[in-house]
Amino acid sequence: MDDATYGYRAGFIVEGMDRLVERIRETEAEGEAKYTRPIPPPVTPVPAVGTSPEAALEWLDRRLDRDGFGGFFCYIYDSWFTGVTWQPEPLALILWEKTVPLLALSGVRHDQTAAMVVRFGERALPGLVAIVAAEPEDKLPHVLKVDAAALTPIAARAFHRTKRARPAAVAWLRAHPRTAALRLLPDALGAPGPERDAADAALRFLASEPAGRAAFDAAVAAYAAIDPRVPEAVVSGVDSDPLDQVPVKPPKLPPWLVPAALPRPVLLAGGTLPNAAITAFCEMLAFSSPLTPYAGIAPVRAACTPESLDAFALAVFQSWLAAGANVAGEWAMRTLALIGGDACARDLTRQIRAWGQAGLKPRGKAGIAVLAGIGSDAALMNLSALAEKNPLLQLREAARDAIADAAETRGLDAVELADRLSPDLGLDARGGLDLSFGTRHFRVGLDETLRPWLRNADGQRLPALPRATKTDDPELAKQAAKLWAGLKKDAEDAGRLQISRLETMLATGRRIGPDVFQPFFAGHPLIRHLAGRLVWGLYEDRLATTAPRVAFRLAEDLTATDAEDAALDLDLAALDGVVGLVHPLHLTPDTLAAWTALFADYEIAQPFPQLAREIYAFTPAEAAASATDRFDGVRVAGRRLRGLRSQGWSSDTASEHVCSVQRPTPLGGADLFAVLRFEDGLWHRSGPEGDEVQALRALTLTETGWGASTAHRFGDLDPVTASEILRTPSLLAATGGE
Question: What is the per-residue burial (b if ≥16 Cβ within 10 Å, else e) of 588-598?
Fold first, then answer.
């Protein structure tokens, strides 16, 4: 690889154990010379010339372990770890078992795992087990052929505790049912604790499938030959009725939770849960997890109204927060995934943002996992909002991972999932909502930014929902006020997200099929308010260079009309082609003028610039190059560089501190990026650092994200892509640093 482009060093190989002392001394000296920060000295002196290989290896073992590996000096040995599979035998095994530095520095490629197992057999197992335990989601799929009892607890824990690692754990358990059953049975019959819970869950899964059942029964018989009490213990444990699989001692409810003070779940058959049942329900929730919920929770969910369970879960969660949100009570947050709904999703999202502001990464990640567990459209919408905007990079990445998991489950990518998850916010088929005070009635609609508005029965626009009067039904008025308040909050969040999503669609030229456009855009109760204010095109294909075969807008009755407001004979559910937002560059000047006049005549405000979108082009000199300094030195407020995602740009990197934004720019079969650099950089986390004025630097077309492309030029881009790439820095430059 090109070192100048990637900053990559090939693995360093010690030629033989007789050269170990020499190479250690060279590496330590190189570190002292290379880094400006001082390298922490070892506890014992660097091996002198003439030291035996065995003594030098012991010294290196201490240096990479007990000397506190993980400080800055660790990077002087990174190339040793990169070449671990080719090192002399004793050195390779020492390095292989240094899990923390091995993963932190070079990572462990899947070919390295196979190479170490082939080369060393069982001697590679301790290091392999430690590596898989550290990263089960990534590493378990690549050890499916390794039949080792030591991997079994890792697979069981992954199955029991980690949603993302569960598919790999299932695959490993199915591949090695006999090994798994023999190794897990003692844990499942052992003392209560996390290991027993994981073993119990994994064995119950194995016993539910024919091959696993046979292996499980064989393991029981094998242990019964040693201890006749094993079969009886199994009947009362793994093979017991799911409703009987409860802790020996039910968890003691914390002082901050008073079951009788919680809102009572309402029974579908009428009435509410009594106090004793509420207390028992709280105990069930306390020892359950969203991944392996106690069997008794499902009957309660089936018997109660979803709205009342949502309120109940929210009250438990808020009680925990009010008491300080200690770790021991984190089950209160997991309760939201077990029985919560949209109200819980909204409240949890606000709390995750607060945790992000406070820098509480572990708590924020746990909250994102729970939000994903709620799984409703509103929960996934809020996950999408967190993925777009959150003070901490790690929380944004966690939210994106959760969305990717949800998309994979449905056989979609994250963008396709987002198309299908726009919330309807309780709006009716006409995209509005009727509110009733009994004697008075109001109609809710939404404007071009999805802000709700109100009209009374006479059609008069109201500034706010009126207060209830003596002639109104108090319960209906209270219900209407609650609906109105919730809609305003949800519409505000949805508006930012959905408008950004549609502008990204325009900026990137993304096209969708009619099976997506009609139900999730044109006919969607919420998105129709935005879709009807934009010009759409029917295209032959998904290529950015293809102009629309026909352009249309959606009338109030969802029929398609042209620039003259004439109806078009288009069946939106069975269009021949794909649909996308029309870029002005795909319209002739006369057609663009006709559309602009039509929208002006009807006073249709667009949610973002489409017909009036600014157009830019590279100069001939720029078109012949892959980098331009057109914007070099332009001063821009740092806060403006944070909000470019709607224009197709991303500032996410592996670091909290970033000095560039980039935009995917596919060209033929090449995956290119347009990269805009700036100084002095900004932080993803909240705070004043980075919000001060930044200086723009080069705009570059690149394959790698770093060096300018040598194979492609700006002139290779289609006019729409070129215009969109230039539009962002041009608009930034126009702000003048404000």
Answer: eeebbebbbeb
CA distances from 83 to 93, 210, 240 (A): 12, 43, 51
Domain boundaries, the chain: 3-243, 259-420, 438-491, 497-601, 620-734
Quote the CA–CA distance of 194 and 157 in Å, as a whole number. Answer: 8
* Core vs surface per residue 472-485: b (16+ CB within 10 A) or e: beeebbeebbebbe
Distance of alpha carbon 165 from alpha carbon 172, whole angstroms:
11
Quick check: helix, strand or coil at residue 667?
strand
Dihedral of alpha carbons 162, 165, 166, 172, sign: negative
Cα–Cα distance for residue pair 587/598, rounded to 1 Å:
15
In terms of Cβ atoms closer than 10 Å to its own Cβ (0-12, 13-18, 19+), residue 141 is middle
Q: Which residue has the tokens 């705070």?
A: 687
What pairs with residue 455 in β-bridges?
443, 461
What single string gives the DSSP state of each residue in 396-420? HHHHHHHHHHHHHHTT--HHHHHHH
pLDDT in tens, 591-631: 999 999 999 999 999 999 999 999 999 999 999 999 999 99
Residue 83: alpha-carbon gap to chain centroid: 33
Q: Can you tell me the mean pLDDT for 300-324?
A: 95
> Which candidate, 505, 506, 522, places its Cα nearest to that of 514?
522
How would you classify the pairing of strands 693-702 and 670-683? antiparallel
Q: Which residues contact 223 (CB under 8 A, 6 or more apart)?
A: 185, 186, 230
Tokens of 210: 């024919």
Q: Which amino acid is at 659?
A: C
pLDDT tens per residue across span 579-593: 999 999 999 999 999
- What percent of the chain shows pLDDT beyond 90? 48
Structure tokens of 432? 């509005």
Q: How far apart are CA 574 and CA 513, in angstroms?
A: 9
CA torsion 610-611-612-617 (nearest 10°) is 80
Q: How many CB atoms lie within 10 A of CB 735?
A: 12
Level-2 CATH architecture, domain 620-734: 2-Layer Sandwich (3.30)
Residue with tokens 């914390």: 254
End-to-end alpha carbon distance in the chain: 42
Instruction: Give the H or E element holding residue 158.
Output: helix 152-161
Find how far residue 436's CA is from the centre of its chain: 39
Contact criterion met (CB below 8 Å) for 143 and 128: yes
Say how far apart CA 660 and CA 522 lie, in whole Å: 36
Residues in the chain: 738
